[in-house]
Amino acid sequence: MIRAVTLTVIGICFTSLFALRFSAGKGAAQEYPGVASMSQVRNDSVRCKDLPGEKQLKDFLVLSQKDGGDAGGLFHGARMWAAVVNRNGEVCAAATSTADPTQVWPGSQAIAKSKAYTANAFSLDTLALSTARLYTFTQPGHSLWSLGQSNTFNPNFLAAPSEQSKVEDRIAGGLIFFGGGVPLYNSNGKIIGGLGVSGDTSCADHEIAKRVRSLASLNPPGGPLVDDITYSSADGSSVFTHPLCVNTWRNGKFIGEEPAASGY
Description:
Beta-Lactamase, four-stranded antiparallel sheet, single chain, alpha+beta, 5 helices
């Protein structure tokens, strides 16, 4: 009799514990429908503190397509990869703007991660430097030519499009010197990482990147345009200038077209 009662009590305890854990999980799912984990909403770990998680990054990509007017390019910002790194250069999140991740250029995954790494690697609390502003410096005949050879991307840190969340805790590296990478800052004006966007022309990539940064409230102390892309045709000659792309727009205004090649 005593043994039977003991087994019954143990059974009730296990059943209650299971029910408690199940209800707790159900509550989290109800609060964040369709989200597998809290880290997908906002990274709450020390390593990626204050940076967007996968779910939030995807939401920002979708919102940015309409926020600020036409983004230009081939797809108007609708087919993008985005990646976020922390100040150490570790990948914290990656996402695509489309429901089907295979409908964004697969090659843009590595480019987005490299842009995020580059923007973080060459920015400081006192200097926000987007990848667009590094273009001229890194061309032949300019002072940072061959900089891209200093830290190449590690392809072992790529993930299949359907496994975007399996990219965290890794320093993928890679350096990219055209539009689409911007540094990220907290509310105290301290740099905390970088954001990279790729999937369209480099000019459209930059437009979406700065919109996502603004939506995430992670702009530099000087404001969202302090490291904006510049074009010599619109802004005059500069060491920070970037070439025009196909269907180039900036801040809701059409800028121009990339010159056609001839003589081939």
